[in-house]
Specification:
Number of domains of chain A: 1
Shape of chain A: globular
CATH superfamily of chain A: HPr-like
Largest interface: A-B, 19 and 24 residues
Radius of gyration of chain A: 12 Å
CATH topology of chain A: Histidine-containing Protein, Chain: A
Largest sheet of chain A: 4 strands, antiparallel
Number of domains of chain B: 3
Oligomer: heterodimer
Structural class of chain B: alpha/beta
CATH architecture of chain A: 2-Layer Sandwich
Radius of gyration of chain B: 27 Å
Chain lengths: ~90, ~600
């Protein structure tokens, strides 16, 4: 029997100058892939699978834009904390 | 028999080497389906290709990390993740199973879909990543089809002349540049990012050769001349002799040019000539000054926008223009406003493909339609006038109305700057690049609204003769000495003189001794050339006499063909200059020297 999990959500602003370009997108997808939860990320009404590089690149999140993460699953809280922290730290690019 | 092809020399130097062909490109995929029983075999083929490509990319990543640092190594991460992405992998497998497609065809379908999806966003950040997708497309298809690695690097035992359709900066960093003697490509421009990279690495390069990837064969001997923009495949004895002679001649010439940098550009009979530099990048200003440039006759500004994701802001532009102005505190710096369109597209402007881009939405037409792009540039330029004789030049103007619109915009920006207490020099000059027959023929009207003219011969020749200058098949027809071109330039020079405004020439032909002589004869006393050519053209000017030039041009104006024009000029120069040093350049056929 599968557990029932609630949808958790968290928003974060993109702070690094170049935005979520190729390398940060890759970092984000890698980080999301380490969690068992289903994770989505949304920007301006476009919602994509955070574990898909094709999806995350499509967001084209620029500096100053807001990303909203939603997660469902056993490690949802932890996933949200890790991902928002990664974005907040500017993907450790600068 | 040797094969000679001319393109654009974008990075100096002459080298001999062996052709190393890069077959970077999407291979042809035949349309075919498979039998029901073979479907799983195709799935397996695809999965194996994915694994092989992953291994290739991981190898590249570790090479790049070693050579350039961990951060650079990570440029391969997106492609690696795409190989794990269900959007790419699972969907391809679905297509194989549901439609009984071959692995190659299914993958191609999926990539085309993704490309279309990304293209529809019109978002520059997304469009920029199409490179990564193409990179994966090419690599994985090669693996599926069992083709050799499209990017086999040259080996250390054969100094390579790299031949490719086009390159990217990441391809350049991928190679051990110590093994590459020269580069020749079908596409590319002086301002392509990889070209700038290659120039800074000091590797000679010729671009715009159109079909060199089809002509050249792996392992073929070749000579590449980045100075005149030429490649010779399978050079014969005579080619090699000329090559070695040119290397020697160039060495002597360069020494002479260094000596000349300090001398004044004055004709033999005492006419001073303002000799300025054409710059692609502000960072070239120092080198231009050291080569003896008396200011900048053409500062191109496309570097600020081409290949960029966002609009360049006013502050950044101001800093760049100001830096160039401060390099030449006592001379004019003529800045051409954005000359976009044609073959130059910024990523943040959506420019729909056109049937005739050179007759399309370009240059001043783009600027006037895109105030968000144009106004910050005008403001930055106005602010730069506080730091030197910064002049504003508008490209491809045909109508007085276009000048008036810009004047009105400038007035508004001046008022705003005054209100904000930001300094600028209100006495700055606004000039026009004369590069269409319409502008030349209507110069009288335009002169009333312009502070100076600069004749852009590259486009003027193209538009007058209806010859696309990027089409190598028409290279023989692209002739700046055509009598029609001569008459137009004559007309512009006469009008400018009558109107009391300065007229200069800033096209390639100004760096040609026959061109320089021609302009002297038309009483054009200001020339602007690519900065590496400054010393050479100064040497030429110091050997020539305006009086001879006037007489020769008077005869040339009555000539019936380009060859007759050239003959008149060669005869006029007579023994004052050894023209044999220039043979083979600018596709110019020199007649035998007059006795």
């Amino acid at each position: 029997m599968s557990e029932v999990h609630q949808v958790k959500a968290a928003s974060v602003e993109v702070v690094n100058r170049a935005g979520v370009h190729a390398r940060p997108a890759a970092a984000l997808v890698k980080a999301a892939g380490r969690f068992r939860s289903e994770i989505h990320v949304e920007k301006d009404g476009l919602r994509v699978n955070a574990k898909s590089i094709m999806g995350v690149l499509m967001l084209a999140a620029e500096q100053g834009s807001t990303l909203r993460f939603t997660a469902v699953g056993p490690d949802a809280e932890e996933a949200l904390a890790t991902l928002t922290e990664l974005v907040r730290r500017g993907f450790e690019e600068e | 028999m040797s094969i000679v092809r001319d393109g654009f020399g974008v990075s100096e130097g002459i080298v001999e080497g062996t052709i190393h062909l890069l077959n970077w490109g999407v291979p042809e995929v035949a349309h075919s389906r498979v039998e029901e029983g073979q479907v799983e075999e195709e799935v397996g083929r695809f999965q194996q290709a994915v694994e092989e490509t992953r291994a290739d990319l991981e190898r590249l990543r570790s090479q790049a990390s070693e050579r350039l640092g961990a951060l650079e190594g990570r440029i391969f991460d997106p492609q690696l993740l795409m190989l794990e992405d269900a959007e790419v992998v699972d969907r391809t497998i679905e297509y194989i199973r549901e439609n009984r497609l071959t692995a190659a065809q299914a993958f191609e379908w999926r990539i085309l879909e993704l490309q279309a999806q990304w293209n529809r966003t019109f978002n520059p950040m997304v469009l920029d990543r199409l490179n990564d997708l193409e990179d994966l497309h090419v690599r994985l298809l090669h693996r599926i089809l069992g083709l050799p690695d499209p990017l086999t690097p040259p080996t250390p035992d054969a100094p390579a002349i790299l031949v490719a359709h086009n390159l990217t900066p990441s391809m350049v960093v991928q190679f051990d540049t110590g093994l590459i003697r020269g580069i020749a490509t079908d596409r590319g421009t002086r301002t392509s990012h990889w070209v700038i990279l290659v120039r800074s690495l000091g590797i000679p390069a010729v671009v715009g050769l159109d079909t060199i990837t089809q002509l050249a064969r792996q392992g073929q001997e070749a000579i590449l001349d980045g100075r005149i923009g030429r490649i010779i495949l399978e050079p014969d004895q005579q080619d090699r002799r000329i090559f070695r002679g040119r290397v020697l001649q160039l060495k002597e010439w360069e020494e002479e040019v260094r000596r000349l940098a300090t001398l004044e550009p004055v004709t033999k009979d005492g006419q001073p000539i303002a000799l300025r530099a054409n710059l692609d990048l502000p960072s070239e200003a120092g080198a231009a000054r050291d080569h003896g440039a008396q200011g900048v006759g053409l500062l191109r500004t496309e570097f600020l926008v081409v290949g960029r994701k966002t609009l360049p802001d006013e502050e950044e532009q101001y800093r760049e223009y100001r830096a160039v102005a401060e390099t030449f505190p006592t001379y004019a710096v003529v800045v051409r406003t954005f000359d976009l369109g044609g073959d130059k597209f910024p990523m943040f402007l959506h420019m729909p493909p056109e049937e005739n881009p050179f007759l399309g939405w370009r240059a001043i037409r783009v600027c006037l339609d895109e105030p968000e792009l144009f106004r910050p540039q005008l403001r930055a330029l106005l602010r730069a006038t506080a730091h030197g004789d910064v002049r504003i030049m508008l490209p491809m103007v045909n109508n007085v109305d276009e000048v008036l619109q810009v004047r009105a915009m400038l007035k508004e920006e001046e008022d705003r700057l005054s209100e904000q207490g930001i300094p600028f020099n209100s006495g700055y000059k606004l000039g026009l690049l004369i590069e269409t027959p319409a502008a030349a023929l209507d110069a009288v009207a335009l002169a009333r609204h312009a502070d100076f003219f600069s004749i852009g011969t590259n486009d003027l020749v193209q538009y007058t003769l209806a010859v696309d200058r990027t089409n190598s098949r028409l290279a023989g027809l692209y002739n700046p000495f055509h009598p029609a071109v001569l008459r137009l330039i004559h007309q512009v020079a006469r009008v400018a003189r009558a109107a009391g405004i300065e007229v200069s020439v800033c096209g390639e032909v100004a760096a040609n001794p026959l061109g320089a002589f021609l302009f002297l004869g038309l009483d054009i006393h200001s020339l602007s050339v690519a900065w590496p050519a400054l010393g050479e053209i100064k040497k030429v000017i110091r050997e020539l006499r305006v009086e001879d030039a006037r007489k020769a041009v008077a005869r040339a104006l009555a000539a019936g063909s380009a060859q007759e024009v050239v003959d008149c000029l060669v005869e006029g120069i007579g023994n004052s200059l050894d023209l044999s040093a220039f043979a083979g350049r600018w596709n110019l056929r020199l007649p035998p020297r007059p006795r």
